[in-house]
Write a structure and sequence with these properties.
mainly alpha, globular
């Protein structure tokens, strides 16, 4: 049953070995983009709108989607590599869905315990977020699942390994940046992001299925941020 996954991993390892011999400027630009553009966008938007507003959220989401499209352009036209090089299309769609739901359950359980212990979710930042229209919150949740996994898991982990880092370092560096990037929510948000990010990173190293990661990440954010508003 795992034949296709083993084959995908072997294919990706072959790709990684070949790519290590031809690290290009495009890859370094892609790494900078994947690791730091979310922080730069957040700080840039916060400079003009210190408090999260509808306009600020629209600008932020637009810039992040443009950044994601730019990274995909770098992969296909700059590096001339297939999307399998970042874990897209490496598993059958139904397996990605099932594993994505498994990730969501594990992440929701860990996040729920940490939120209860730390009291996360009752600060001014959460209040401003909850004032946004529900359709916009839903789009933000969708973007988080797709773009954050593309940046911090699929691209960063694969390319850091390609430049010579061991898997633990290749996953750990983006994880730390990902967690610290949640400082606006306080120490509790950093801790939750660190633990949930570790679950996502470990799964990606194991399966190299970025679609499953996106589904898992997006689902747990949807359950935490959209469902409560639907039934309130």
């Amino acid at each position: 049953m795992e034949t296709d996954n083993i084959g995908a991993q072997s294919f990706l390892m072959t790709e990684g070995s070949a790519m290590a011999k031809r690290i290009s400027r495009a890859t370094w630009v892609g790494l900078f983009l994947s690791l730091f553009v979310m922080l730069l966008v957040r700080q840039s938007v916060s400079y003009f709108w210190p408090t999260l507003t509808f306009t600020a959220a629209i600008w932020k989401e637009t810039l992040l989607w443009v950044s994601a499209i730019t990274l995909l352009f770098i992969i296909r036209r700059g590096e001339r590599l297939p999307l399998t090089s970042i874990g897209l299309g490496t598993s059958r769609w139904w397996k990605s869905i099932l594993w994505g739901l498994a990730i969501a359950v594990a992440s929701a359980a860990a996040g729920g315990v940490l939120a209860a212990l730390t009291g996360y979710g009752h600060g001014p930042g959460s209040a401003a977020f909850e004032k946004l229209p529900l359709w916009l919150i839903t789009l933000i949740v969708l973007r988080a699942g797709v773009v954050e996994e593309l940046f911090y898991r699929g691209y960063a982990i694969e390319r850091l390994q390609a430049v010579g880092l061991k898997p633990a370092w290749a996953a750990g560096i983006p994880l730390v940046i990902f967690a610290l990037g949640h400082w606006t929510g306080g120490a509790a948000n950093i801790l939750i992001a660190l633990v949930l990010g570790a679950i996502l990173s470990a799964f990606y190293l194991w399966r190299r299925d970025l679609v499953a990661n996106m589904i898992g990440h997006g689902t747990v954010d949807f359950v935490a941020n959209v469902l409560p508003n639907l039934f309130s």
